[in-house]
Design a protein that fits this description.
The chain has 360 residues and is of the alpha/beta class. The protein has two domains: 2-154, no CATH class; 191-355, Rossmann fold, CATH 3.40.50. It is 56% helix and 13% strand. Strands 5-4-3-6-7-9-8 form a seven-stranded mixed sheet, with helices on both faces. Strands 1-2 form a two-stranded antiparallel ribbon. The protein is elongated. The protein starts with a helix and ends in a 5-residue tail after the last strand.
Length: 360
């Protein structure tokens, strides 16, 4: 009676595992907004990794139930099932982080190999099995992780986002900035990527333009031009005005220019590839939107403040308590009597201010 039970358990476990694994692949492809035609090898393996861990967990869960009467085999199957469930959960979370460009392509596969090696190797060695291949497999996974991380950290985040979007396109997803005291539920907001303003802030930005009716808007940090186009759409609805947007990085600027020129809103936008601290802009600024490198935000505001209208607005993105450098800069400018600021509690934070004008 023992042999047929083992065979049936193996077959049942394999079938259920395959079904569960395929469903995980389908769900992962959907949440990442991936296209089979554009999916690279590393991304494909990263999608397969949590599915493999899920299948691994399911297979050994079936084995656990089938071997309940055989204590030694039962303990090993139960151990591998629980460990694989934890691994599957972890790899699923890592896949989400990879889709948000917090992790490099290939790292989920590398982590699967390491986790599989640690768990499977421990179970095998404890049963008197071979340990040499365990070390070789684990070393391969560790090397893969090291290689993909080295390439990831060599590149700039802006360039990674541009390359990713060129391959997969834009996709809205929950904001992933860590919770702050002023914004404890960032997941309620949506983002296009980790550097463009939150989708709700883009909507707000356009509303500010249609409400204030500015003649001249200055934006620092064009990035991909998405916020620029939100401003331009507001100007178009107003029927007048222009936005001067400034981007320092040539590669980023080229991507933004391409987007702006294809948008149908080009006539409302003047785009420049230069440093915001060197830019010369004629006229009175009605709205200044500071969204460039965080380390120069304070210098930007100080530089353009004399040109800002008495009734103009200064908007500074990334002013949450998570990004202390920007928040402290805004508060410092306020303490010096240069600004009157309100800190809006969005995930990344948005400071809205006016310059203080002496009553004398």
């Amino acid at each position: 009676m023992g042999a047929p039970l083992t065979i049936n358990a193996n077959v049942a476990g394999a079938l259920v595992a395959a079904l569960c694994g395929s469903e995980v692949i389908r769900a992962d492809v959907a949440r990442r907004h991936l296209s089979a035609r554009k999916m690279g090898a590393l991304v494909a393996f990263d999608v397969i990794a949590p599915a493999a861990a899920t299948a691994w967990a399911v297979y050994f869960a079936v084995q656990t139930m089938a071997l309940a009467g055989a204590r030694l085999s039962f303990m090993r199957a139960a151990f591998e099932s629980v460990a694989a469930i934890v691994a599957a959960w972890w790899l699923w979370q890592e896949g989400r982080r990879a889709s948000q460009l917090q992790r490099p392509n290939g790292i989920v596969l590398g982590e699967l190999i390491v986790l599989f090696t640690v768990v499977g190797g421990a179970a095998s060695v404890s049963a008197g099995g071979e340990w040499r291949w365990t070390i070789i497999t684990g070393a391969f996974g560790a090397v893969l992780i090291g290689v993909v991380l080295a390439g990831y950290f060599r590149g700039r985040e802006e360039h990674r986002i541009i390359d990713h979007v060129a391959e997969h396109g834009d996709a809205l997803q929950p904001e992933y900035t860590p919770a702050t005291p002023e914004c404890p539920h960032p997941e309620r907001w949506r983002m296009i990527d980790s550097m463009t303003a939150e989708d709700e802030v883009l909507t707000f930005l356009k509303s500010v333009i249609t409400t204030v009716k500015p003649h001249l808007v200055v934006e620092t940090g064009t990035f991909r031009g998405i916020s620029t186009l939100a401003i331009a759409q507001g100007l178009k609805e107003n029927g007048f005005g222009r936005v001067v947007t400034i981007e320092y990085d040539p590669k980023v600027f080229a991507a933004a220019r391409q987007r702006i020129e294809a948008s149908g809103l080009k006539e409302w936008v003047e785009y420049r590839n230069e440093s915001s601290l060197d830019a010369r802009i004629d006229g009175t600024i009605d709205i200044l939107f500071s969204d460039s490198d965080q380390s120069i935000r304070e210098a930007e505001v100080r530089r353009f403040l004399p040109q800002v209208s008495e009734h103009g607005l200064i908007l500074v993105h990334d002013a949450s308590s998570h990004y202390k450098i920007v928040r402290e800069a805004v508060l410092r400018l306020e303490q010096e009597g240069l600004l009157s600021a309100v800190l809006l509690p969005t995930p990344r934070g948005l400071a809205m201010a006016q310059k203080r004008v002496s009553s004398s």
